[in-house]
Design a protein that fits this description.
By secondary structure, this protein is mostly beta strands. The chain has one domain: Porin (Beta Barrel). Helix content is 8%, strand content 67%. It is built from one helix and eight strands. Strands 1-2-3-4-5-6-7-8 form an eight-stranded antiparallel beta barrel.
C-alpha cells in the first residue's frame, strides 16, 4: 500500500495536460547509467544510475547539473594471481546545454560539462580513493511522452586523469524526464 502513495500522484502527473508551451523552465531527469571506463587501456564496465537538473533560460540554451554513481567489479593482478575487487565511481558535472526544439516529438541536445569524478580504491589500480577533474561532452535525444514527460537517451565521452595519465571513458544513460513550468 505504501508504494501506491507515490505511484498514484506520479501517474496523475503524466495524465494531466500541461499548457501549450514547448520549452519547460526546469527538467528533472533520472535513470540507468553505464560507464565503460578506460577504453584505451584495461577497460572495465560499471553500472549505476544518475540524475540531472536543467534550467532552460530560453528555447535553445540552459544549464545542467548532472550526478552519476557507478559500481562494478575489476580484475586486479596480485602476487597470488588475479583478485576481483568491487569498485565505484561518482561523477558531478555542470555545464551549458544546447537544445533544438523545432521538432514535434524529439528534442536533440548537446552539452559540455565540467566537474569531478570520485573513485574508490582499486579503480584503475589507484591505492586510495581520489577525486579528480572530469570533462564530459556529449548529447542525446528526449522523446516526448506528453508536455510534462519524456524519455531520454544520452551518450557522453568522459575524460578523466588518474595516475598521471588520461583515461578515455564512454557513458550511456537512459531514463525519464519530468518537465516543470514553461518559458
Amino acid at each position: 500500500m505504501k508504494r501506491l502513495t507515490w505511484f498514484i500522484p506520479a501517474l496523475l502527473l503524466f495524465c494531466v495536460p500541461a499548457n501549450a508551451q514547448d520549452t519547460p523552465a526546469w527538467e528533472f531527469a533520472g535513470g540507468y547509467s553505464y560507464l565503460r571506463a578506460n577504453i584505451n587501456g584495461s577497460s572495465f564496465h560499471l553500472n549505476g544510475g544518475g540524475g540531472s537538473i536543467t534550467e532552460n533560460l530560453n528555447s535553445w540554451f540552459g544549464g545542467r547539473f548532472e550526478f552519476n554513481a557507478f559500481q562494478g567489479n575489476v580484475s586486479v593482478p596480485s602476487a597470488t594471481g588475479t583478485v576481483v575487487k568491487s569498485v565505484s565511481a561518482q561523477t558531478f558535472t555542470y555545464g551549458p546545454v544546447f537544445s533544438y526544439r523545432k521538432l514535434d516529438r524529439v528534442t536533440p541536445y548537446g552539452h559540455v560539462q565540467f566537474g569531478a569524478i570520485h573513485a574508490s580504491q582499486g579503480y584503475l589500480g589507484i591505492s586510495a580513493s581520489a577525486t579528480k577533474f572530469a570533462v564530459a561532452p556529449g548529447g542525446g535525444l528526449d522523446f516526448k511522452i506528453n508536455q510534462r514527460a519524456a524519455v531520454r537517451i544520452q551518450a557522453d565521452y568522459v575524460a578523466t586523469y588518474f595516475l598521471k595519465a588520461r583515461q578515455d571513458n564512454v557513458q550511456f544513460s537512459a531514463g525519464i524526464v519530468i518537465r516543470i513550468g514553461s518559458k
